[in-house]
Write a structure and sequence with these properties.
The structure holds two protein chains of two kinds.
Chain A lengths: L5 H15 L3 H9 L1 H8 L11 E4 L15 H16 L1 H5 L3
Chain B lengths: L1 E2 L3 E5 L5 E5 L4 E5 L1 H12 L10 H9 L3 E2 L3 H18 L3 E6 L24 H16 L5 E6 L8 H13 L4 E7 L6 H6 L5 E8 L3 H7 L9 H14 L3 E8 L6 H12 L5 E7 L17 H13 L22 E4 L4 E3 L11 E4 L8 H10 L6 H4 L12 H10 L13 H23 L2
Parallel strand pairs in B: 6-7, 6-12, 7-8, 8-9, 9-10, 10-11
Antiparallel strand pairs in B: 1-5, 2-3, 3-4, 12-13, 13-14
Classes of the chains: A mainly alpha, B alpha/beta.
Chain lengths: 96, 445
């Protein structure tokens, strides 16, 4: 299995950070199942390797609620957009 | 990249390495081959080749085991910001209401030195409602959380009923709780708990019957254990709330905790019941049965033993979760029977601990208020700023911390079991391993 270049490593960390910032389930995955998380954001195979077994963690340590959270209808729209992007990826890329 | 100064890594006697990071509050294990790799990463993170294991790099970055220059400072700032936002939030009004300072018990160790038979009057009740309504008028009341405390609050049960009716009429989400000795919790009062929206109750039992009766006698009738236990049984049959049974232990009855906990668990299987130890100790001196306690080598020993003997760690939560005390929160107060306001349960009845009043024409003690709310802040303490546990510590009990800082007294307010932390995490690791091996063997048929 091929190794990742430093540029690929940096891009992967950035992509995970971006997704984890808005997706709490993914944030958890990045800590507990990092290989699967990388697979999700990078379009290439992730080398097998031993990782930590995590027992305790705090998902909120790097966030603070300073503005009101999204409303119920905003959350629903975000979910629908995600589902729409899975069904019609071309439309999502075009921003339609 | 650098190895965070907030990491704690050590070799486990069970094999491999254990790793704790206080910035992210992450606890993890590295099995033997990985443990050796971690040692290399610790020695020189930038020289380590992650190209063959990007998943490990991701994990170490997400857990803040590896940090960029300046990142720790920024995360500490964020930690402080979160705490300030939490302390200053104004949507929840949390009131501990003391309808009376009188008590029907004569506990041998009572910490309320300033007890007197003061009872809430109708005038104070009216003013208390007006005090709460002020929050409503200014749009700062989205949730009202009331805890009934004393003295013994059930001595003023009618007052509690009348006040609750008024609170419910405000039409804001409401929840109640109560700290009581349980003696007056008879079937008539139990029947009213649901209407009073009392969702949780704390009752203290001091070990087996003979010890309890010696230490917590009724003022007139003497032995109290049998009455309380009968009430507890009835309560758990007829009420859907959560009951916390606090078992006070000291060096004389420490071993009895496990005995009485086992007995209570047998008596009330499957009930919404938590049994936990209250540590009666020499420090704080002369006031051993305090609502909050300080960590000492002796109490740490005992708590580790409780954790060791609890299959799921129930009854004792030793993992650090920094949460501000009510004394540090803007909208949390203790209201005394005469309308006096305190920041802290410890101060109830003590004129020197009064920070204000529910009466609008009375003055507030802003010196004391600010000592509690920001004067005990760990981020302002040079010693604390050097501590590995800073991101996870609220500075311990603000009452004892304030007394140490401003009155020259000597209390250890450091994080619980700080000096035995790795020992605790070892126990936690072994429990998790046992749990996983049980799951694996079950799955294997």
């Amino acid at each position: 299995m091929s190794k990742w270049s430093p540029a690929e490593l940096a891009a992967a960390l950035k992509a995970v950070d971006r997704k984890a910032a808005v997706d709490v389930e993914f944030k958890k995955k990045a800590l507990l199942q990092p290989r699967e998380a990388l697979q999700e954001v990078m379009d290439r195979e992730v080398p097998l390797g031993q990782v930590l077994t995590v027992f305790d963690f705090d998902l909120d340590f790097d966030t603070a609620v300073v503005a009101p959270p999204p409303t119920k209808s905003e959350r629903l729209r975000i979910r629908l957009n995600k589902i729409g992007a899975m069904i019609f990826p071309e439309a999502a890329e075009d921003g339609e | 990249m650098q190895w965070s100064r907030y990491n704690l890594m050590w070799e486990s006697p069970a094999g491999g390495s254990l790793l704790y990071n206080s910035l992210s509050n992450t606890f993890a294990a590295a099995e033997p081959p990985l443990a050796a790799e971690l040692a290399k990463i610790q020695a020189n993170p930038d020289a380590y080749d992650f190209s063959h294991n990007p998943a490990l790099l991701l994990q170490l970055r997400r857990a803040k085991v590896l940090v960029e220059a300046g990142e720790e400072r920024d995360l500490l700032n964020l930690s402080l910001l979160k705490r300030n936002l939490d302390c200053l939030r104004h949507d929840v009004l949390g009131l501990t209401i003391v309808p009376t300072l009188a008590c029907n018990f004569r506990c041998t160790y009572c910490y309320q030195q300033h007890k007197r038979p003061a009872r809430m009057t109708d005038a104070v009740q009216t003013q208390l409602l007006a005090f709460i309504q002020r929050y409503q008028v200014y749009g700062q009341l989205k949730f009202l959380d009331v805890s009934w405390f004393g003295g013994e609050p059930l001595l003023e049960f009618d007052r509690i009923c009348r006040l609750t009716d008024e609170f419910l009429a405000l039409e804001v989400p409401y929840t109640g709780s109560m700290v009581t000795n349980g003696y007056l919790l008879d079937k008539e009062r139990i029947a009213k708990l649901e209407d009073l929206k009392i969702k949780s109750i704390q009752i203290t039992i001091d070990g087996p019957e003979e010890i309890h009766n010696r230490r917590r006698p009724h003022a007139v009738k003497g032995d109290s254990y049998a009455v309380i236990m009968a009430n507890v049984e009835r309560l758990l049959e007829r009420w859907s709330g959560h009951l916390s049974l606090r078992v006070n232990v000291d060096r004389n009855n420490r071993e009895k905790f496990f005995e009485i906990r086992g007995r209570l668990q047998q008596l009330f299987p499957g009930k919404n019941l938590e049994i936990y130890p209250g540590i009666v100790q020499d420090s704080p001196r002369n006031n051993p049965d305090t609502p909050c306690e300080c960590s000492t080598p002796e109490t740490d020993d005992f708590l580790l033993e409780v954790y060791r003997q609890s299959p799921d760690g129930d009854g004792v939560n030793l993992y650090p979760h920094a949460s501000p005390c009510m004394a540090q929160r803007r909208n949390s107060f203790v209201i005394g029977p005469e309308g006096e306001v305190y920041n802290c349960w410890h101060d109830v009845g003590n004129p020197d601990g009064v920070v204000g009043s529910i009466f609008p024409d009375q003055e507030w003690n802003y010196t004391l208020l600010s000592r509690y709310m920001v004067g005990t802040e760990v981020f302002a303490d040079e010693n604390c700023r050097q501590c590995l546990f800073l991101p996870r510590c609220s500075g311990g009990c603000p009452h004892f911390r304030a007394r140490s800082l401003f009155q020259g007294e000597d209390f250890n307010t450091c994080l619980w079991i700080k000096s035995r932390f790795t020992e605790f995490l070892e126990l936690r690791y072994l429990k998790e391993r046992r749990k996983n091996s049980t799951i694996t063997s079950n799955q294997g048929g």
